Amino acid sequence: MWIYEKTLEIPVRVSKPDLQMAKFLLTQYGGPDGELSSALRYLNQRYTMPNKRIKALLTDIGTEELGHMEVIATLVYKLVKDATPMQMREAGLGAHYADHDKALFYADANGVPWTAAYIQTKGDPIADLADNIAAEEKARATYQWLINLTDDPDVSQVLKYLRGREIVHSQRFREALFMLEEENRASKAQKEDDDL
Amino acid sequence: MEYGSTLRKLQEIQFALVELQLYLDMNPDDQRAVKQYKELTVQLVQQKQAYEKERGPVMQYGHSSTPDRWTWHKTPWPWEIEY
User: Fold this and answer.
1) Is residue A14 situated within a structural domain?
2) Range from A56-65, A67-76, A117-126 carrying the lowest mean pLDDT
3) Which residue in chain B has the smallest CA separation from A178?
4) Span A94-122, pLDDT tens digits
5) Considering the domain boundaries, does residue A156 fall inside one?
6) Strand, helix or coil at A113?
7) Which end of chain B, N or C, is less packed with Cβ atoms under 10 Å?
8) Alpha-carbon span A53 to A177, nearest angstrom
């Protein structure tokens, strides 16, 4: 069960409309390393994750990523809401307008629709955790590139916050991977002792 | 109290609890963190009540106290709030 909370994880403000930036930001909504991908990736891995701590971690990070999806959606919504169709066209959002008007859509910055192929699930805890760390690092890098693309201090502040959260998630997944590897080593050593 | 500051304070407490939750997932034996989590939980309940008194329910499905007049559909959604 999930329960919706009518608040954002952080306040989101934009200082001016910026349609091009909205187009770029869409990749963190429905692109390969975006928040939809992260949320679904982690929540989906939980069912077969053998470790208790990591099951909790996947649940909690997956839930936070859903919250981040709403932060990105809010940024895009606020950047686009007062635009005219012609302004959208001039900013490279003409194709988006033709297909979706101002509605958000799960697609990357080029308009390529989201696909489940973005999500990795191998069922092997070491493989999945290593993949999650890579996913967080890719999301962190994407936020950095997006920060480099904006001159709006309000947008930049939100993106820096999200970049920081990806770093924390990556650290937590690194701890999880380290813990699993240690446990594997210990049980292997135990088995070798038993075999003697 | 001003709309923005009540909400901001609520968001601060909520964020601290998210961060601590992730930390405790991997460090469940850290009693100092558990204590901090419990203290923040008390603050969260109080701040949520203060915010809901001003602005109506924050959570759905009965997890917020319900005013006599139904307001869930009337209060602004997170993307509509101007900070």
Assistant:
1) no
2) A117-126
3) B26
4) 999 999 999 999 999 999 999 999 998 89
5) yes
6) strand
7) N
8) 11
